[in-house]
């Protein structure tokens, strides 16, 4: 595993995430150009998974861009990503299996933050149903150690609520046992930012024969709206062959 520089995250880093508003405004300002860019030569079936505390609605604008390219987009059914990871991954696995059968082709799964960790695990479990995964700011290396301490505090609070209400006894180190150490055996794209105020950017990178990592200049919350993110996603799902 590659040794990478680490970043000490603080409340100031978290406040800087408000810059995501400007990133979204810039994203929206380019929306009128989407139709001018034409459509992809090959349509993909794509499942989107939101990050911690977020819901599908946070990825609607990103989905609209994908649809403008001619892709078919599915959502996770998550209103707020705070449920027990074991239950979430089982529901998502069922969605992948059903959508793959309906479309009669493999899916591309794109996840933001915690959603990317779920996407990676789905790829490990269901390689026969998933063509590739794309992770946006997902802390795949020791996520419990490399998140902003204030975000980690929220995660611990939601975990206690889950345990009280549902008897969940999962471990943070493996996110209730759904986060494995090894990279999946299908193409995996990692998009990260050194300006990330929520997770340590170095934790978003791993090595593997099918892994490609790309750096962008973005906040954590703004990654799905970052114009460089869109460029990389388009390259990976429309122009790259065999995941290379």
What does this structure look like?
The chain is α/β, with parallel strands linked by helices. The chain has a single domain (about 10-240), classed as Alpha/Beta hydrolase fold, catalytic domain (Rossmann fold), CATH 3.40.50. It is about 35% helix and about 15% strand. The protein is built from seven helices and six strands; from the N terminus they run ααβαβαβαβαββα. It has a six-stranded parallel β-sheet with strand order 2-1-3-4-5-6, with helices on both faces. Helix 4 (about 85-105) crosses helix 5. The longest helix has 19 residues, at about 85-105. The protein is globular, with a radius of gyration of 17 Å. The model is unreliable at about 1-5 (pLDDT under 50).
Task: Describe the structure using short key phrases.
244 residues, 7 helices, disordered N terminus, alpha/beta, six-stranded parallel β-sheet, globular, Rossmann fold, 13% strand
Secondary structure elements and their pairing?
Layout lengths: L10 H5 L4 H10 L15 E5 L10 H9 L3 E4 L9 H19 L3 E6 L1 H12 L4 E7 L12 H18 L21 E5 L18 E5 L11 H13 L5
